[in-house]
Amino acid sequence: MKDIFHNLLESSQSILKNKEVLRPSYVPDILPHREKQIEELAKILVPALKGETPSNVFIYGKTGTGKTAVAKFIGKQLMKKGKELNVVTNFVYINCEIVDTQYRVLQNVANHFIRAWEERIPFTGWPTDEVYSRLVNSIEKRGGVTIIVLDEVDKLKGDEVLYNLSRLNYDLQRARTSIIGISNDLKFTEFLDPRVKSSLGEENIVFPPYSADELCDILGERAKIAFRENALEENVIPLCAAIAAQEHGDARRALDLLRVAAEIAERNGESKLTEKHVRMAENKIELDRVTEIVRTLPVQSKLVLMSAIVGNELYDDLTTGDLYQIYKDLCRLAGVNILTQRRVADLISELDMLGIITARVISKGRYGRTRQIEVFAPTKIKETLEKNEAMPNLRNYKPNLQSKLL
DNA sequence: AGTCCACAGGAAGGGCAGGCGA
DNA sequence: TCGCCTGCCCTTCCTGTGGACT
């Protein structure tokens, strides 16, 4: 019994030597194919090292294009150079998906400057303007230039916090601040208050998606650190890169593929990572994504999805009308309100957008115009749905196929 | 060429919950 | 605590549409 972990540890040393390198949170020392963006951002921020105020920057780019990595990388470099030159530089990174309200953003930035022996601002309770003045004080006390990075800035609730942060410099005497906003939503600034828009959008940097070749280089760099020698079959990295490039050049997805593939290979006790493992990883990631989406769907959407699965089993080509008949039956079985066909049509569209089903508009001529519905990975989805208590027991369901047979 | 089916999908508005300032 | 506002979910009503059939 005592050797259980020993054995597992032994076997899991076969392929990976440092898995952390493959995680999205890891900031590498080299960022291949982002030299231009790094230089651009560095040029904008270099005034900080002379004690001047850098322009605010907005960074755009789809997920996995290296926005966060570049921002963190530059932050690290800036702090290092600041120390060398004896210039006070501060770098605060905030992920707005987690810290999403005005209060919490101000609280987080302020707490960054508060020393261990000083009173920290609590999670809640203080009036927002008091947190703001505390923030101004602490930045002022520290002096120098503070770079505040707001990652996923589009997730912030309201633009008040952006307005307040952008006017920080008016309230500061000796210290200066500059904001870097990061977003994957190109249209984000369109909906901002014009004052915020002009103040924050002083400079823009766009991160284009990586090509398959570029992804190969990125994976190659990480693989050197992550894997033992000869643990990778030659075509593994190009395959991961090609799959990720097909979507939109997402490096995060490429790294996930490589990591999950390695985990699968290790769990199987194999000593070499092959194309087969990448394919298995691709499947696993996709299924995990779908299961997660299905699990968190509202009850009505779950019922529509279940109707689609049942419908696919009963009909060769499932249409909106057929699905709606089944849906009404399932609602009765589950004791749930029946929504109108108009609303169900919208729920079908939503499921289509999530990529769980495909709903193609087709015309059957004289027999009308409708959508043909097909469910992706029905077995796995059904399994997930059946774990939900609110779902009806399908063993009690007797379909009425009359409409189709006539 | 015109008809007609079975919807798609837009517009408007009701009802409700939650947030917020007074 | 109250009234107002906003966003979300949903319904009702409506017009539009591709193509088989007449």
Task: Provide a quick synopsis of the model.
This protein has 17 helices and 8 strands. The protein has about 400 residues and is of the alpha/beta class.
Question: Can you describe what's shown?
Answer:
The chain folds into three domains: 4-22 and 210-293, Helicase, Ruva Protein, domain 3 (Orthogonal Bundle), CATH 1.10.8.60; 35-206, Rossmann fold; 297-405, Arc Repressor Mutant, subunit A. 50% of the residues lie in helices and 12% in strands. The chain has 17 helices and eight strands. It has helices at 4-11, 35-45, 67-85, 102-113, 128-142, 160-166, 168-171, 194-200, 212-226, 236-247, 251-267, 275-295, 299-314, 320-334, 341-353, 378-386, 402-405; strands spanning 57-61, 89-95, 145-151, 176-183, 203-207, 318-319, 357-363, 369-375. Helix 4 (102-113) packs parallel to helix 6, helix 9 (212-226) packs across helix 10 (236-247) and helix 13 (299-314) packs across helix 15 (341-353). The chain is globular, with a radius of gyration of 27 Å. The protein binds a DNA duplex (22 and 22 nucleotides) through residues 300, 319-321, 339-343, 345-346, 349, 361-371.
